[in-house]
Amino acid sequence: MATVSLLTSIDATAHIHLVVGSNPLAAARCAKSLEVGAKPLLIAPETAELHYALQKRIDNGEVRWLKKTFEDEDVLRLGRDEINGVVDAVFVTLSPRDLLSSHISRLCLRNRIPVNVADSPSLCTFSLLSTHTDGPLQIGVTTNGRGCKLSSRIRREIASSLPLNLGAACARLGTIRKRIQEEDHLNHLALTDSLEEDSTDQTSAFNALVTEADLDAAKSRRIRWLSQICEYWPLRRLANITDTDVDSVLKSYAANPTTSTPLDTAHLDHVEKRGRIILAGSGPGHPDLLTRATHKAILSADIILADKLVPSGVLDLIPRRTPVHIARKFPGNAELAQEELLSLGLAGLQAGKTVLRLKQGDPYIYGRGGEEFEYFQKEGYADRISVLPGITSALSAPLFAHIPSTQRGVSDQVLICTGTGRKGKPSVPPEYVDTRTVVFLMALHRISGLVADLTTYDSVDAKVVRGDKTVDESRRLWPKTTPCAVIERASCPDQRVIRTTLEFVGAAIEEEGSRPPGLLVLGNACEALMKCDVRRKWVVEEGFKGFEEFIGLGASGIEELVVGDDKVKEGLESVVPLVRRDSFGRELKV
Q1: Are 274 and 239 in contact (CB under 8 A)?
Q2: Residue 228 vs residues 260, 343, 508: alpha-carbon distances, Å
Q3: CA-to-CA separations, 490 to 185, 309, 485, 510, 542, in angstroms, rounded
């Protein structure tokens, strides 16, 4: 059987730890020493290049730096006076191939000083565990030199399975243990004094009713009761113990030390329901593009506050019992509608409800998610906010239109912009870069102005006038022949793609009409996979087909991810066929 280590817990308060080296590991060793109350001494030459974290601790006076090379006498004279100057532990952070590492290891071994050498278990007499700390609770994991990364992984898995507040519960149970011991000691003294006072007045038969055995029995009951709590209660119940429960236990025990159930545990099985706000993105439109986390939030929320443009396919997933409020945003009312949503969300939080703020796309990509986070944070609910990402249409819509946002030799960067700034004001247009793909959100309602901003210097919204009254023409303009695509209701059955150029995109939208929500993709990537017919001003593609090969596609979404079965055709009757037509309305063959 392989030999294993003896795991111990050491009180290192005021111990002297000698750290040899100046690298990041030396900084980590000093930090660990300080964490446990020890005093780290760093040995490194004055010319050594210190890790910035190490230098900061030295500057703050937390770590003492001995600017010298290591000497054998250091381990025997730099320690505490009460142990004749011997250091308590030595950490060597040099390479294990460094001759000094093996020399220090042998030196410490001869003097029975604990030593740890980085990445060399054979030179160590002790190792540091991968530790999870929560108040007085510490959990350590070691693989005995077989893999520190694996130790960290196992420690994280264990820590993630523990209930919240378990460390605080350990502290509270420790308080109960200490206070009960104090109560028992006082009772023992009181009973002993009583026996001594009454011994001259009472008969031996009466005095025999209260004996030393009775006091020991009371202690045994206390130990048994506390042991049963620690051994048999579920950790979730232990974690829910409060300071009020501790006071109740102590009062009950003081009144009757023989009681076996001094705590009413019924309420410990029920976690207090507190309000929570969830900022979640619903993706570009198709319900199958929801994340599983957002889908679970939709099913479990008490109240749902949804953006106006969240598609009906996503809204259909909301249980009938759940109240839903759709944002009443329209031109001139956007700010009032936003304030209304925030007020409703705050009221739900204060009532202990789980409020889902359902947004289109991703909440942090032009979804005002950051502003809403700040609002609820200022209201005191910072720890009750959860943010769930969504697939942003800025990156997924081009995909559904067969536009690779980046492709070698075509586009090496992506820029996401808004066509409308705060309070409806136009944003600053980006300059032309031939290898850049630009995605404009909230821009189609002012497409003509946006085209003018991109292709001219003297547009009303983008004109920059210098101090000498001349127009700044340093910005690179976009050629009107630049390929672009308008993508509307991406991933929805009525998705529409208009492929054209900057020169004709305004006319195309005016003639074809608007189908919000939509966006504009601009750049050479628009023609990387699908070339437009130069004889036509624009081409329109109707319908979305992207999930036909998945079995079970229908109103309820993808049931199974199985590809290639002939039965798939049975579930595709409701899919809108893809139809392409040009600027003259003539249907094109795909």
Answers
A1: no
A2: 10, 48, 77
A3: 75, 12, 12, 19, 11
**DSSP states of 257-296:** TT-S--S--GGGGSPPP--EEEEEE-BSS-GGGS-HHHHH
Residues forming a β-bridge with 18: 41, 90
**What gap in Å lies between CA 322 and CA 342, rounded to an integer?**
18
CA separation, residue 246 to residues 46, 236, 265, 338, 555 (Å): 54, 16, 12, 45, 54
Q: What angle do CA 528, 531, 534 make, to 5 degrees?
A: 140
Residue with tokens 């730890």: 17
What does the block give as tokens for 88? Answer: 């308590």
SS3 of residue 388 by DSSP: strand
The amino acid at 114: P
Rounded to the nearest 5 degrees, what angle is found at the Cα of 117, between the Cα atoms of 116 and 121? 90
Residue 50, token pair as written in the block: 């210190």
Q: Name every residue whose Cβ is closer than 8 Å to that of residue 132 and which is 6 or more positions away in sequence.
A: 138, 139, 140, 155, 158, 159
Please give the radius of gyration of the chain, using alpha carbons only, rounded to the nearest integer.
36
**Which helix or strand (DSSP H or E) is residue 159 part of?**
helix 148-161
pLDDT in tens, 243-298: 777 777 666 655 665 555 555 555 555 545 678 999 999 999 899 999 999 999 99
User: Model's pTM, two decimal places?
Assistant: 0.63
- Angstrom distance (rounded) from CA 443 to CA 416: 12
The pLDDT tens digits for 322-344 are: 999 998 876 667 788 889 999 99
> Which of 178, 176, 189 lies closest to 251, judged by CA?
176
List Cβ<8 Å contacts ≥24 apart for 404-412.
404/525, 404/528, 404/529, 405/437, 405/439, 405/525, 406/437, 406/525, 407/525, 407/528, 410/435, 410/524, 410/525, 410/528, 411/435, 411/436, 411/437, 411/523, 411/524, 411/525, 411/528, 412/436
User: What strands, in cross-sheet order, belong to the sheet with 587-588?
Assistant: 413-418, 436-441, 518-522, 483-488, 496-501, 539-542, 579-582, 587-588
What is the three-class DSSP state of 487? strand
How many of the other CB atoms lie within 10 Å of CB of 336?
Answer: 11
Task: Tell me whether the omega of the peptide bond preceding residue 262 falls within 30 degrees of 0, making it cis.
Answer: no
Cα gap 113→484, rounded to integer Å: 72
What type of residue sits at position 252? S
Which residue shows structure tokens 């004094």? 193
Report residue 399: phi and psi, to 5°. -60, -45
